[in-house]
Automatic annotation (TrEMBL):
Chain ranges of the 3-beta hydroxysteroid dehydrogenase/isomerase domain: 9-224
An example molecular function term from Gene Ontology annotations: 3-beta-hydroxysteroid dehydrogenase [NAD(P)+]/C4-decarboxylase activity
One record GO biological process: ergosterol biosynthetic process
Stored Gene3D superfamilies: NAD(P)-binding Rossmann-like Domain (3.40.50.720)
Keyword terms: Oxidoreductase
Residue stretches in coiled coil: none
GO cellular component, as recorded: endoplasmic reticulum
Species per Swiss-Prot/TrEMBL record: Coprinopsis marcescibilis
Similarity remark: Belongs to the NAD(P)-dependent epimerase/dehydratase family. Dihydroflavonol-4-reductase subfamily.
Pfam families given in the database record: 3Beta_HSD
Highest taxon of source: Eukaryota
Protein name: C-3 sterol dehydrogenase
PANTHER family linked to this entry: NAD DEPENDENT EPIMERASE/DEHYDRATASE, STEROL-4-ALPHA-CARBOXYLATE 3-DEHYDROGENASE, DECARBOXYLATING
Amino acid sequence: MTKTKDVYIVVGGNGFLGRHIVTQLKDRGDIVSSLDIVQRYDDVAFYSADITDEDQVASALKRSGATCIIHTASPPANLKDESLYYKVNVEGTRAIINAAIQCGVRKLVFTSSAGVVFNGADNVDVDERLPYPDVPMDAYNDSKAKAEQLVLESNGKGGLLTVALRPAGIFGPGDRQMMTGLYQVYENNKTHFQIGDNTNLFDWTYVGNVAYAHLLAADKLDLSPPAPPISQLEKVPVSMDELPPLNDAERDIVETNLPPIDKTTGKHQVPTCIARPLGPYLHPPENAEEIETRYHNPADGSNNRPVARNRFDQLSPTGINQAKLHYPDKHPLQVAGQAFFITNGEPTYFWDFMRYIWHHLDAFFPGHRTPRKPFVLPKLVGLALAQASEWGCALVGVQPTFTKFKVTFSCASRWHNIEKARRVLGYHPQVGLQEGVKLTVDWWWAEYQKGSHKTAH
């Protein structure tokens, strides 16, 4: 039986990420429309609506005929009026969920954030089991966490299937937030300032990869789990000993060898006796050509390594069984009702990423920067200066640009385990960091030449 194709509506489809999702859906031939406040593009059907108004959202859903909502809309970070975060992220998401159920929409893919689990401490190789912090770091991520909870708790209500994706550090063409800040630092010749010792690894994610993950999630949202949730078994298990062993479909998901993430590093083949580059020989072996060919053109799976697990791994039998007991109504290896971290899988030192972007800007503005040694402010000094800045700004009633959150953010290790997304969604980064930075800066330069930026060199 042929599966009916979805009709998509992208909420926030004129925004940075939303536009990339719209483009990818168009490129693969899907029917897609955009819901936003202001129309910026005319290549897809557009619906104007206030997402906090359930009736307006429902009207757009009915007119579009959407069967799948991809919800990317969110206010930008660092707003002076922090109440807007709750209004848009929480109340807006609640209105979208209610409208989706009212209109019989089958799927909802929600753009959350990796920051929903950040509490100021280092996040090192964390996976989706990490709980929300008791004390939120900021209003933006607190509202995102509340919205994500609404989405996941709504899975199954009124036939609606939901999933939340948690991208980290999105960058790419169309980014007018991070790139604006980095260019201002570059323009003011302050790229030599550094807060912290730059030993903190950080996840950055190319926007095209994030968009691709949204499409994967939408496609797989209604797939059946590899085994029924334990609440559907004739006798519901209440302990690890009573759980049935993993079946073939479950083992296939967690035991299949994954390819390396090598978009930036390239592939590194391990020489062996039957596949190696040949050096100078007085008398080469009879099968010399075959040996060298095997090395330069390895067969799929020829360099695989066994999947190693331990009981602390969320995808080990123990980890999967614990998840089954904690959430008996859903399977840990299904898409519906789950959250997934989405990154490039290439954590890099925080300030190295900034400097790589500035390095690419040098090609367009030769001679602008004077080479200088980094001026390093220890984290504690940075926090003290941020505190003083916040007090001073409060006295005169302006919004501080140098804050404790920014210092903490730039000095913390924040990188995430994306194995669950790779195995359950089938996600694999399509664009590496190196290529992504080049695409981003090339786009920025093209916009600069057109006079599209507010800042000028």
